[in-house]
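Researcher: Can you fold this with L-tryptophanamide in place?
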Amino acid sequence: MENSEQKKPIILSGITPSGMLTLGHLCGAISNWVKLQNSYDCYFMIADMHAITVRQQPAELRKRTLETAAIYIASGIDINMSKLFIQSHVPEHAQLTWVLNTYTGFGECSRMTQFKDKSQVHAENINVGLFDYPVLMAADILLYQADLVPVGEDQKQHLELTRNLAQRFNHLYSDTFKVPEPYIAKVGARVMSLQEPTKKMSKSDANQNSTIFLSDSDDVIKNKIKRAVTDSGSEVKFSDDKPGVSNLMELYHIATNKSISDIELEFEGKGYAEFKPAVADAVAEYVKPIRTEFEKLMKDKEHLTKILQQGADSARGAAFKTLRKVYKKIGFVQF
Ligand code: ATP
Ligand code: LTN
């Protein structure tokens, strides 16, 4: 039995398996999670229930879900330290969502900017699940009594709703949920599109040359970087009016750990023709071990599925405990 004084703060986060993960996910999310693993009790999930708010091909969703898990592990998520699981394997997520729905105002969900944006992009399928997406996310977080939630800037509004729901419920009954804090990674970890460097690199970009997927081969990575949009002039300098070059410098920094000022010095007097191949090689080297491990994991799906089943088993204890508490407080007969 763990001594309560030794209990680490709890972290929960996840990514929706709606496409192959990118260098952006690695730098902006997963590599941060890896660093947090030692100091926190971590729950990392694959949000397949969120994925179906947009129509998915069943075989593709199944494949993406396993691939996302494999990328988490290949990038350094340690299954002996963190709980790694698929959201739909823990039924308490759906159960708590239903309860929280009855404490969420229609107006609150209508105001979510992601819902408004996605309703425009998927105008042919504005389903109730898309509307309810933030409540499911609140359930994900509150089930595990998370203290901190590492998310991108775009998820901050959902986290604010989560905090409001937790406070509302606690106030109506008694302390039930931990009120979580967002953990927004530093701005440097925002990887931009290689073709439109003012937009973030995204797994759903229509132009494949914009995005480095973690499954891309060395040659594909190198070609994408060599074709990346640069800015006028030829100076390798980090500045707001040079978004293309600045993004490549950021990638070089991530891949080599060299500081931005050292990179400027290294390429002083040299043009893009020397800079781009250096970035291409460095990024390819950086992604290679992750891709190699990813491919190895994907060759043994049975083993991967077993890992995920064990992850769900260990996550369920905490989830069940919270749900039971909630059911009791709202007046459901105990089972
Ligand atoms: P989609 O295009 O399918 O809506 P996406 O690729 O833009 O998705 P999400 O899957 O919503 O991104 O990203 C999950 C999390 O991964 C984000 O909240 C963010 O923290 C991180 N992330 C994604 N893309 C990047 C990026 N280019 N740079 C830094 N972090 C990123
Ligand atoms: N919607 C999130 C993914 C997600 C998540 C969560 C993140 C689902 N549930 C709970 C943190 C906590 C996204 O980043 N697109």
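Model: Folded with L-tryptophanamide in place. The chain has a mean pLDDT of 94.
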